[in-house]
Amino acid sequence: MQRMTKQRQAVLDELTRVSDFRSAQQIFEDLHLQGQRVGLATVYRSLQSLADDGRVDTLRSSDGEALYRSCTTHHHHHHLVCRECGFTEEIEQSQIESWVDSVAAAHGFGDVEHSLELFGVCASCQSKK
């Protein structure tokens, strides 16, 4: 775990303030609007450090951009993400873990790590259609 610098704390505070996933560029812009003087490269480094420490969740958007959110669960979990509004639900499913282990074993793999994001349309957005 790395030392919590002033800049890293500012990035974490910004992610805690919002509930949705944000790009590094969005976080950088939000911090500047608040008067925080944090460079874009520092935002990227801070996000990587926070992700390595398990303090932020990371997922890839449909166009491959890394998105970040403050992690509310500090153990392994997956996400359901709404394609319309970005609402994200953390999910835990033991069946997924069992499936991953069996697929890995069937192919001779061990010590497997994984992440899973399921994209769909949340109930709220479905009701608006």
UniProtKB/TrEMBL annotation:
A Pfam family per the record: FUR
Domain of life where this protein originates: Bacteria
Binding positions for Zn(2+) per the UniProt entry: 82, 85, 122, 125
Cellular compartments annotated: Cytoplasm
Binding site for Fe cation: 76, 97, 114
A single GO cellular-component term on record: cytosol
Gene3D superfamilies: 3.30.1490.190, Winged helix-like DNA-binding domain superfamily/Winged helix DNA-binding domain
UniProt cofactor(s): Zn(2+); Mn(2+); Fe(2+)
Main location per the UniProt record: cytoplasm
Keywords noted in UniProt: Cytoplasm, DNA-binding, Iron, Metal-binding, Repressor, Transcription, Transcription regulation, Zinc
Free-text cofactor note: Binds 1 zinc ion per subunit.
Chaperone recorded as keyword: no
Keyword DNA-binding: yes
GO molecular function: DNA-binding transcription factor activity; transcription cis-regulatory region binding; zinc ion binding
InterPro entries associated with the record: FUR (IPR002481), Fur_C (IPR043135), WH-like_DNA-bd_sf (IPR036388), WH_DNA-bd_sf (IPR036390)
Gene Ontology BP terms: negative regulation of DNA-templated transcription; regulation of secondary metabolite biosynthetic process
PANTHER family, A to Z: FERRIC UPTAKE REGULATION PROTEIN (PTHR33202:SF2), ZINC UPTAKE REGULATION PROTEIN (PTHR33202)
Family classification: Belongs to the Fur family.
Quaternary organization: Homodimer.
Annotated protein name in UniProt: Transcriptional regulator, Fur family
Organism: Schaalia dentiphila ATCC 17982
Classification lineage: Bacteria, Bacillati, Actinomycetota, Actinomycetes, Actinomycetales
